[in-house]
Amino acid sequence: MARPDTTVGQVLLARLETQAAVLAGLDDAVRADEPDAVHRMRVACRRLRSALQTFRRLVAPGAADELVAELRWLGGVLGRARDREVLTERLAAEARELPAGCGPQRVAAALDRWGEAEYRAIWPEVVAALDSPRRRALGEALAGFLADPPLRRRAARSAVPELSRIAAREQRRTAGRVGAALAAAPDERTRALHEARKAAKRARYAGEAAAPAAGSRAERYAQRMKAVQEVLGEHQDAVVAATALATHAVTGGEPFGYGALYGRQLASAEAARRRLPDVWRRAGKRKLARFG
Predict the structure, then answer these.
(1) Which of 52, 63, 109, 215 is most buried, most CB within 10 Å of its CB?
(2) Which pLDDT tens digit goes with each residue over 96-126?
(3) Model pTM score
(4) Residue-wise over 205-237: b if at least 16 C-beta within 10 A, else e?
(5) Contact (Cβ atoms closer than 8 angstroms) between residue 72 and residue 42
C-alpha cells in the first residue's frame, strides 16, 4: 500500500514511467524476433495508451492526444504480426486434436506453413516501424512528458478516493458495453462483444495502475475485469479464426479438416457468449470498485 499522502498524479506517473521503460527496453528484442517480445511491446503500448486515456482528467486538455495516437500506431503495427502469430498457434494446436479421419497432422502442418508465410510477410513492417523517425519521436515525446508532466490541479488529490472513482467509472462503461452486447442483434453481436472486450481491458488496466496505491482491493478488481476480458477475447479469437479458415479452406487442400476446425470455432464462440453473463455478474458488483 502507498503512503496516505500519495496523490493520484503520482500513481499515474509511476504507471507511465514503468511502462515507458518496458517499451524502451524491448526494441532490440523485437528486432531479433525473440519469443514473446512483440507481445510484450504491444502490451506496453496498450498500457501506456490506456493510462493516458483513463486518467485523462488529470492531464492538461490535449497534452496527451499525440502520444495516444502514436502509441495506437505502434501498437497497431505490432498487433498485425502478433495477431497472426496467435491465430496460427491456436489453429495448429486445435488441428492436432482432430480425429484421425480429418488428417490432423497434415492440417496442422499446412496451417503452420501458412501462418509462417503470413507472419514473414508482415514482419518487415515491424522492423521498419522500429527504425523509423516516428518511433524515435515517440520515445522522445514520452520522455518529455515524464520530465515535465502537464498535470492539472486535480492530480494533487489523494490517490485512493480518486482511484476508486476512476475504477467505478470504468466499471460503468464496461457494464454499458456488456449490456449492449448481450442485447445486440445477431448481425451486430460480434462488433458489440469486441467493444465490450476493449472496455473490460481498459478497466483491468485501471485496476492494475491503482494496485500499488490501493492494494488487494484494486488487484481483485483487475482480476475480475481480466476474467471478463478473457472470455470476450476467446469469443473474438474464435470469430477471427473461423473467418480465416473460411478463406484459407478454398486453397488449403484439406477441406474436411478445415471444416471440422471451423465448426470448433463456432462452438467456442457460442460457449464464450454463454459464459459472459456469469463472469460479468462477478465483475459488475459496485462494491468491487470501492478501494478505500
Answers:
(1) 52
(2) 999 998 889 999 999 999 999 999 999 999 9
(3) 0.93
(4) bbbbbbbbbbeebbeebbebbbbbbbbbbbbbb
(5) no
